[in-house]
Design a protein that fits this description.
This protein is an alpha/beta fold and 364 residues long. Helices cover 38% and strands 19% of the residues. The chain has helices spanning 40-48, 55-72, 76-87, 95-107, 115-150, 178-186, 203-213, 226-231, 257-267, 287-290, 299-302, 352-358; strands spanning 2-3, 6-7, 11-14, 19-23, 34-37, 158-162, 191-196, 218-221, 237-240, 244-246, 251-254, 271-274, 280-281, 303-307, 313-317, 330-333, 340-342, 347-348. The structure holds 5-S-methyl-1-O-phosphono-5-thio-D-ribulose (MRU). It is an enzyme of class 5 (isomerase).
Amino acid sequence: MKVDGTHYRSLWWDAKKDALQIIDQRWLPHEFRTQSVVTLQDFADAIIQMRVRGAPLIGATAAYGMALAMFIDPSDAHMAQAWEFLHNTRPTAINLRWALNRCQTALLPLPVADRAGAALALAHDIANEDVEINRQIGLNGLNLIQDIAAKKPSGEPVRLLTHCNAGWIATVDWGTATSPMYHAHNAGIALHIWVDETRPRNQDALTSWELGSHGIAHTYITDNAGGHLMQHGQVDMVITGTDRTTRRGDVCNKIGTYLKALAAHDNGVPFYVALPSPTIDWTVADGVADIPIKDRGEREITYVMGRNNAGQITEVQVTPDGTHGGNPAFDVTPNRLVSGLITERGICDASEAGLTAMFPDLSG
Ligand code: MRU
């Protein structure tokens, strides 16, 4: 996607510097800063501090981290150590484990001397595949948007609601939930996106930045506004991303997604989830019981970050001194509330039968 006219992916390999480049997302939407990731600790920090974020991007970053580990020391022992070190950075997004396992499976049988080059090539493959997966999700989601547009008086926008940034910067490119939006916009369909702020970290300020950069009409709303808008017929469809979806289609995504799904269900609004196959956790069925949800600490709740009138990016305390904040970062939407899963192969039911029929080769 383009930033000020230049095409970017959210990470890229700089052959001259021999290093991975990332966008440091902590400064967005206010400043666009990029950074070289050079040491294994840099990789861990980038994920822990959410310089890179979003499940697919976390997975791709970890693959490059494994490549660096193989350049440092390609032994079996170091591979296992790097797996553990990178895996411990964030617990919920399953793409992290998926990418590290894929690297380990591919690299372990190789002679030690071949591992570094193979690991870097594999990281490039994972990044490129992510772009293609998301492009396909966009084309499949476009069909849903076209169906809605076809039933509207000409010129009336299709009104979508999204929660959290599942945009191009949460992936390598295109995004998951945003890819159908970008494809619809490129196809000339009028859109209006309701963009939930997504407290505490306000990831949808990033979505506003993305959509604004691409000329897609949108309105930034509080997390609590969606139910009201649905009751008043202002939302045609909800599309969110996911950090981990179980084999029976329970969807773990940013905190607050579940409430949107409940409101959508109550108001007969279709609730779709854009799901790349690496985000499916085939080892888990019951998402509520078995997906670990981290409490990210109270500072994200009791403070907000933003840009002040002097142009400085700063934190501001919003609660009285000593107030405790609770901060579960994700929640799980049970499959019964999900209208369908938009995958790279097509749209399926949020059920074990639906996912298994779509991915017989992956479901084991
Ligand atoms: O904590 P984050 O910002 O990494 O969480 C990201 C999300 O929850 C996204 O909404 C989700 O769709 C996964 S990224 C496509």
